[in-house]
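Re: weekly structure request thread

Next one in the queue (331 aa):
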Amino acid sequence: MAADDSYNNELRSMGFRGDDEDDLSADAAELFGSNAAIDLDPEGLPQGTAAGSGTGSASTAAATESGSTRKRRASTSKVWKDFNEIYEVIDGKERRTGARCKHCKKNLTGKSTHGTGHLKRHIPICPVLKSHNAMTQSQLKFNPDGSVHIWEYKPEVACTELCRLIARLDLSICIGESDAFEEYITTAHNPKFAKVSRQTTTRDFAKYFTERRAQLVECLKSVSSVALTSDIWSGNANEDYLSVVAHFVNADWQLEKRILGLRLIDVSHNAENIAERITSVIADYGLTDKIFAVTLDNAAANTRAINQLNPILSGYVGSLFLSNLANISPF
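Done, posted below.
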């Protein structure tokens, strides 16, 4: 027994396995797969591993182009969620040399010494991501006739509709810049909505009014005759406005009604002031020679106002037919 021990010790000193040792590589391969059979160097460590080196929990196993297996330190930058790392074996060591975009498959420099700034700058301009983001901002919308079209969010349209909402509900002009309104829109409707300041809303109001007025002027050019109704309206701020409304038949033989103006009348409601404001609104829309009827409510000042408007607005039907309906009772 002692002679066998001496013989086995001599084998071990020369780096061989003793006769009293079992070959565990076959058992390891059967239990853990073929990669479990790892050749050992004389010190009992896997070949290519320095003595004393360890592997951390953040390391991940990856196969190199040569087919060997080693441990890699996990990349911590969030940019690698959109890129695949490209490794090459240089001077016997595996090094990261590039990065491939997972979306457009474009290869970029990915050396660890170059940082990831250029990779972050690629993400906003990636053509595949840009196309995907555009599609996520679009959705199908039904037309009144049952057909569908692609709806896409447009900030300029949102600003215009905000102006219409404020005007229709008599809201504060600063509602678009409130945190509550922004939270409501971004949560329930559009996550990309941004606050709109009261200064911007004021400019949007002026722009929208100018555009709509130009459209109405163009529409009235093709109209041959117009009937007017007018009344004095009191606002919430205890200010009086004189309204002028046009009634006409359009090119499709449909009756239309359009508000031409609300003029502040902060002076006495006498015939002169009423007639002056009605004449001003009509002139702005080029309708002086197209009026065939003016209807006011039953008031003495309105009767006198019609008498002043008669010679001004008689170009279409003549003074004989321009009627004062102020004194006609509905009963």
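Residues 224-309 form one domain. The mean pLDDT is 76.
Next request, please.
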